[in-house]
Amino acid sequence: MLKILIPTLFLLPTTWLTSSKWLWPTALTQSMLIALGSITWLNNTTDTGWTALNSYIGTDPLSTPLLVLSCWLLPLMLLASQNHLSSEPMNRQRMYITLLATLQLFLILAFGATEMIMFYVMFEATLIPTLLVITRWGNQTERLNAGTYFLFYTLAGSLPLLVALLMLQNSTGTLSLLIIPYAKPLLLMPFGSKIWWAACMIAFLVKMPLYGMHLWLPKAHVEAPVAGSMVLAAVLLKLGGYGMMRLMIVLDPLSKEMVYPFIVLALWGVIMTGSICLRQTDLKSLIAYSSVSHMGLVAGGILIQTPWGFTGALILMIAHGLASSALFCLANTNYERTHSRTMLLARGLQIALPLMTTWWFIASLANLALPPLPNLMGELMILTSLFNWSAGTLVLTGIGTLITAAYSLYMFLMSQRGPLPQHMLALPPSYTREHLLMALHLIPLLLIILKPALLWGWFAC
Amino acid sequence: MADYREAPLATRPKTLDPNEYFNLSPDYRRAEAERAALRAGLKRQYQLQLNNPHRKELIEDPALNRWVYARANPYNHFKATKKTSLLGALFGVAPLFILYYVFKTDRVRLYRRTTYCQCIADQALDVG
């Protein structure tokens, strides 16, 4: 664990001490080496499940895929931001990389935490660099509104979680993830137990986001610069899912009754946000709502607490992280050329930028869960375990899958096919950096097809 | 005669001029001429920008900007009328209750069935 944490920590002095000519190559190389080193975490050798264990942090098959995803994303974020930051003063560029590196550090500590309070503190700490990136480097005036929504929705959801965790600490004496599965349940009055359950879950449901509390997500994703959108879509949403998976063990007998409203919201949200996607005019907004839709399915898979549900949720989280981040990078390539997110303006790009169409195609197919990509594997596992839970869910998830395919194809056809607007003259051809960025997103997604067992969590048998 | 158009270098004869043909009033003709002048000015601006060799950016279309803003900010102008309340209740509130009811009855039925079968199996084992 230290071999990843210390290089990430020292990325901060590196960005401030390298000369301006070598800043971006150095930051990129160091973060890429950290990412390659983090892949060794996928080798879970111990029988007990917890590898690299010490008093504060450890990894287990649930957290390693998410850790590798967050480490892999930092070089990709730096690659994506290089162009739009190149015109800014040097100190602002260094500050940006510093914010991304601190975010990375907090994310590694959050996913690796073995104690719930440390996870909570790191969960809250990730909000600050993200808020700074959205409000300081966003492009429109709405970024301030977006930052406010983002911060206060998540904070308001997570303060009850602090109270709930402290109550659990009081009763059990410890909040270590190795011990609380075996601790006695928290005995409260019936209504108090329900409030305590809701307090534990609401923070993560707002973060995921669940359909009723999802308003912060389109704003934050649209107003953030590309690296902010990437890390939000790929990793920060998954913090919510990870927290839910960890806490479900403690909440067990209550969950049978309490999950119904949230599963209903999650599944209905899949259909509603999918339908909203079909009516969007803003490309980033479409990708943001598609994130809500996929995360609704993940929330449904986690809340029913079955092995296949958890496995499907974990795989879908990783696959969606890579695919959604790829789509945001593609949207950014459009934005850098036309300075507008309107889909109508950037049509017919297959004629102008044919090689980028390949990446658009693969990313759209990943979004609509084409077999044999891991997106389909995750969705199918969640679908079948939901069907086992109750047969009626198949109607909702089936319609949801149909609408997902519809809007993914709509996005592809709208941006690539059709007539190229006649007044667009100066479209620079795709840079090698952009092709590299897309390859680094989508080639791991394609490689996961060959061994998805790496991502199955506790049930990789 | 509906698709008659004058030859490029000739003028239309007076009897086929739409203003004379339809007996339009002089006020209407003046207004029409003003509107045509405005349109010609806009087209000239667009053509100037389109054919400007030093232009690198997109030509900004204010109508498109207004439309995009309107599509992106519906909630600022939302009003709770009978129609919007009905739609909100139909798509936002009622499905939640209906789905809760459907899933709950289905799960309760499944639970009763599994515990009943388990009970019968236990009795059979006890007897045997």
Summarize the structure in words.
The complex is a heterodimer of chains A (461) and B (128). Chain A has 461 residues and is mainly α. Helices cover 72% and strands 0% of the residues of chain A. Chain A starts with a helix and ends in a 13-residue tail after the last helix. Chain A has a domain at 256-460. Chain A is globular. In chain A, α13 (307-338) packs across α16 (374-389). Chain A has 18 helices and no strands. Chain B is built from 4 helices and no strands. Chain B is an all-alpha fold. Chain A binds chain B through residues 260-261, 263-265, 267-268, 272, 281-282, 285, 338-340, 342, 344-345, 389-393, 396, 423-426, and chain B through 49-50, 55-59, 64, 67-68, 71-72, 91-92, 95-96, 99-100, 102-104, 106-107, 110.
Task: Outline the fold blueprint.
The complex is a heterodimer of chains A (461) and B (128).
Chain A: H1 2-17, H2 23-38, H3 63-85, H4 90-112, H5 116-125, H6 127-137, H7 143-172, H8 190-207, H9 216-223, H10 226-247, H11 252-278, H12 283-303, H13 307-338, H14 349-352, H15 354-367, H16 374-389, H17 393-416, H18 432-448
Helix pairs in contact in A: 1-2, 1-4, 2-3, 3-4, 3-10, 3-13, 4-5, 4-6, 4-10, 5-7, 6-7, 7-8, 7-9, 8-10, 9-10, 9-12, 10-12, 10-13, 11-12, 11-17, 12-13, 12-16, 12-17, 13-15, 13-16, 13-18, 15-17, 15-18, 16-17
Chain B: H1 18-21, H2 26-50, H3 62-72, H4 82-127
InterPro entries (chain A): NADH4_N, NADH_Q_OxRdtase_chainM/4, NADH_UbQ_OxRdtase, ND/Mrp_TM
Domain NADH:quinone oxidoreductase/Mrp antiporter transmembrane (chain A): 113-404
GO molecular function (chain A): NADH dehydrogenase (ubiquinone) activity; NADH dehydrogenase activity; ubiquinone binding
What keyword list fits this structure?
heterodimer; A: 461 residues; mainly alpha; 0% strand; B: 128 residues; 67% helix
